[in-house]
Amino acid sequence: MTVEERLKYLRDTINRYNHEYYVLDNPSVPDSEYDQLMQELLTLEQEHPELITKDSPSQRVGGEVLDKFRKVIHAQPMLSLADVFSIEELRDFDARIAKETNHYTYTAELKIDGLSVSLIYRDGFLAQGATRGDGITGEDITENVKTINSVPLKIPYQQPIEVRGEIFMPIKSFDDLNKKKTANGEEPFRNPRNAAAGSVRQLNPQIVRQRNLDVFIYYVMDRTLVPDHYRALELAKSWGFRVNPRNRLCKNIDEVIEYIDEITAKRHELPYDIDGIVIKVNEYDLYDKIGYTAKYPKWAIAYKFPAEEVVTVLKDIKFQVGRTGVVKPVAELEPVMISGSLVSRATLHNEDFVQSRDIRIGDHVVVRKAGEIIPEILSVIPENRVGTEKPFHMTANCPICDAPLSRGKGEADYYCSNPHCPGKHIEGLIHFASRDAYNIEGMGERIVTELFNDGVIRTIPDIFLLSNHYDFLVNKEGFGEKSIDNLLKAIEASKQNPLEKLLFGLGIRHVGSKMAKAIANHFQTMENLMSATYEKLLELPDVGDAIAKSITEYFKDQKNVQMICELRKLGLSMASSKKFVSEGSFFSGKTIVLTGALERYSRNEAKDLIESKGGNVSSSVSKNTDLIIAGSDAGSKLTKGKELGVKIIDEKEFASLLEEES
Predict the structure, then answer these.
(1) What pLDDT, in 10s, does the model give residues 492-522?
(2) Strand partners, 107
């Protein structure tokens, strides 16, 4: 047997074993035999690198470390699904389908709690893997996707094809990963979905491979291959993709509801997290007839499980200082399992919330996870009281620095009056490093608090000078050398984050993540924003008096200006991720409102095109609106625009303007 023949045998055999193990859950050989064949393959390919093929199992090991992820535009938008939360709403959905056609069935699928992925194959080989992103633009994660064993590197279909699915982390992999992170002194992931999302966005594919991710395919984009969705899933399965075996073809909505009841009873026995059931009309020829909204297909719906509610005892009420100085009551609970995780704390929002519900220390309370993430107290069970329960009293002083609290007129929250309160600083640093803000992996609440108390990190710039304290960290109990190295690499990599992430991370009052992105997209650079006047800020859609005042006051503070200068010197990016390509565009600098249903573009796609030309898309019509693009069935926004004399164009004119500038 020649080397070429032996390599082909090894590739085919190992790929078959991978399919049996990772897709069919039915391995036919012991691990020792698999390992022996894999080692032989790697040795032969090392000796004969010219014979390595795209579908070789060795290509899953992980490529080179990336500097950043390349942006990709989806050929067709990755739309989200409308949610329903009750059987009544589900029957309403069915009634809407019945108005369009009398002959239809449904495919019911588990709604895996992970993140969507697009996989593109050309000439039978995996060519690209991409995240959903905002539905229009995602990130190229091809090298990371290759490390997922259930994703075939080669399929028996030669034409270009895109399939879509859900990347997730099995519960066992999640538990194993968190044990390792805890042992290394790192902050554990909150849930499998966050762990999967954080893993997929690792710049080092070797790390991704160690996370043991998985994928279920839920859609084949070419609807000409088979007449319906269920057969498309069967086709994907025949090509070697992992398709959820619990998918079910249902004749009517009653069978769908039976399926929901069955899965609801078994959901916590599954080896992965789900948060609902996806219901799709099965017949492809009905899709265009049933139609789409700007955001969702009308032929599909996501039934979300009701939040799980449990009863436990409220042991105490503590007070917590937030990054803006807000002081909130927090419930200390008798630990209880909710939706697969142990809960010992819950939000109580504010003084009015607690008093209006007469929540007392010692009460039996009903707790649930809002969105299955943040625990909250719904109500108390007064009939369980024994007379020793203690009524709630809001503290008058900050629990960290003892400064007096103040509550503004018309506001629900109390704030610490001390601008130098350590509690604010700690929470501000925790927020800055969090996944939703600057996303520094490994720098969670516990790590930040310890390093703050050690005096190592007191300001945001201190985070980026942490390498200066390497010797201290190595000798600190609970900090392993490997975890320190990983943390420092994560800090260095985060410097490439765009302006919107930095703005949100700074914790400017009233500036959330969405507003930070809008501001960054408009001003493009930190320099432009810092020099913007109150009046200029008010020109932005959705920026009102409070936000404009908050931003201008933030940049009037010389301490904040000095901090920005330090961060710039440390190498942090000060530019927006959105690069406008045409200053001379018709849309540049204009505030534009989209209204009605567009046929050629989804709402998100139209918004992205306008912003790419330098325009700003607003959700409401005002005297600052320059243009309205009106689709069919436009309503009150169009009427108000006519009253204000705003220029109005239809979708055809919009498309013509875009074509002229392309």
Answers:
(1) 999 989 999 999 999 998 898 889 988 998 8
(2) 249, 280
Residue 619 CB-half CA count within 13 A: 5
| Helix H or strand E encompassing 301 | strand 300-304
d(Cα 468, Cα 474) in Å, to the nearest integer?
12
C-alpha–C-alpha distance, residues 215 and 145, integer Å: 9
Domain containing 634 equals: 591-661
Q: Is 210 a member of any domain?
A: yes
The per-residue pLDDT of the chain, averaged, comes to: 87
Q: What is the distance, to the nearest Å, from the Cα of residue 579 to the centroid of all Cα atoms in its chain?
A: 22
Alpha-carbon span 78 to 95, nearest angstrom: 26
72 has pLDDT over 60: yes
- Report d(CA 19, CA 30) in Å as an integer: 14
Q: Are 321 and 330 in contact (CB under 8 A)?
A: no
111 is catalytic: yes
Cite the DSSP H helix spans in 557-593: 558-569
Same structural domain, 554 and 606: no
Asked whether residue 273 falls in the same domain as residue 152, the answer is: yes
Same domain, 135 and 277: yes
**Rounded to 10 degrees, what is the CA torsion of 470, 471, 473, 477?**
160
Task: Determine contact, residues 414/407, Cβ cutoff 8 Å.
Answer: yes
For 18, residues 6+ apart whose C-beta sits below 8 A from its C-beta are 57, 149
What is the count of structural domains for the chain?
Answer: 6
Using only C-alpha atoms, what is the Rg of the chain? 27
In a domain, residue 579? The reply is no
3-state DSSP call for residue 32?
helix
Q: Are both 110 and 195 inside the same structural domain?
A: yes
Pairwise CA distance, residues 478 & 472, whole Å:
12
User: Do 550 and 469 share a structural domain?
Assistant: no
572-609 per-position pLDDT tens digit:
999 887 655 555 678 887 889 998 878 777 776 788 77
Residue 374, class by beta-carbon neighbours within 10 Å (0-12 exposed, 13-18 middle, 19+ buried)? exposed
How many DSSP H helices and E strands does the chain contain?
A: 25, 22
Please check whether residue 459 lies inside any domain of the structure. yes
Residue 542 has pLDDT above 90, yes or no: no
Q: Is the pTM of this model over 0.70?
A: no
Catalytic residue among 68, 71, 111, 304: 111
